[in-house]
Write a structure and sequence with these properties.
about 240 residues; Undecaprenyl pyrophosphate synthetase; binds farnesyl diphosphate
């Protein structure tokens, strides 16, 4: 990685492979989630050190509620611990935490811990951490359409005034577009993660389970990003290392 070359403004991380990482070590899946969470903390410090201001994480999809009751309960408790203890230090780092996703059927203790973390970090100006919990990209579009339809129905907005900017203002969070998405574990799909914001993102699929994904692997990912040509539909080559 070369910090003098163009860095992404907004990166997305699909933290996949916790379960498989643990199972391959003869441990329960929950152990993988716990180690994934530890690894995440280390990685986040590194990412903000690299001066990447926006990070979005796929922590729990709407579909993840279909996992075993035991695993869902474990993850919900892990989230509470993370938000009440482990990630509180993000405040000192100047990182503002926001959440994307639907409230129902999250347990109220998780929702309350999310609200508290958002509130305690709201002054952060060094970076933003957007955590997607009970999140689905298609549901985000449904919810955005309903918000806009309501404004039209109430006479606050006319149909002709609906623009890309209006759509972006009515998403769960107003964030810049995703530049780069890393999905660990070798799976090559985006599984409903920020499908609107990912329109022009570059993708990277390392064959490493999330708990084993090191800061050096992250640096290698950024190096790959810096060597990609992003054209945004135009035809001139725009190598990121020359920007
Ligand atoms: C996917 O791996 C991972 C999850 C569903 C949970 C991710 C959560 C963490 C890493 C904890 C950090 C969370 C927050 C809120 C910041 P998987 O279980 O699908 O792995 P598998 O594909 O090997 O089964």
């Amino acid at each position: 990685m070369n910090q003098n070359q163009k860095m992404p403004t907004h990166i997305g991380i699909i933290m996949d492979g916790n379960g498989r990482w643990a199972q391959e070590r003869g441990k329960p899946r929950s152990f993988g989630h716990q180690e994934g969470a530890k690894n995440l903390k280390k990685l986040l410090y590194h990412i903000y050190d690299c001066k990447i201001p926006y990070v979005s994480l796929y922590a729990f999809s709407t579909e993840n509620f279909q996992r075993s009751k035991e695993e869902v309960t474990f993850l919900m408790n892990l989230f509470v611990t993370l938000f009440r203890k482990e990630l509180k230090s993000l405040k000192d780092l100047g990182v503002k935490v926001v959440f994307s996703g639907r409230k129902e059927p999250l347990p109220s203790k998780v929702w309350n811990a999310m609200q508290e973390l958002e509130e305690s970090t709201k002054e952060g100006s060094r970076g933003v951490l957007n955590i997607c919990i009970n999140y689905g990209g298609q549901y985000e579009l449904v919810d955005m359409a309903k918000k806009i339809a309501n404004q039209v129905q109430e006479g606050k907005l006319s149909i002709d005034e609906i623009t890309k900017e209006v759509i972006e203002k009515n998403m769960y969070q107003s964030l810049p577009p995703l530049d780069f998405i890393i999905r660990t574990s070798g799976e090559m799909r985006i599984s409903n993660f920020m499908i609107y914001q990912a329109a022009y993102a570059e993708y990277y699929f390392p064959n490493i389970y999330f708990p084993a994904f090191q800061t050096s692997d992250f640096d290698e990912a950024i190096l790959t990003y810096q060597n990609r040509n992003r054209r945004f539909g135009k035809n001139e080559e725009k190598n990121l290392s020359n920007q």
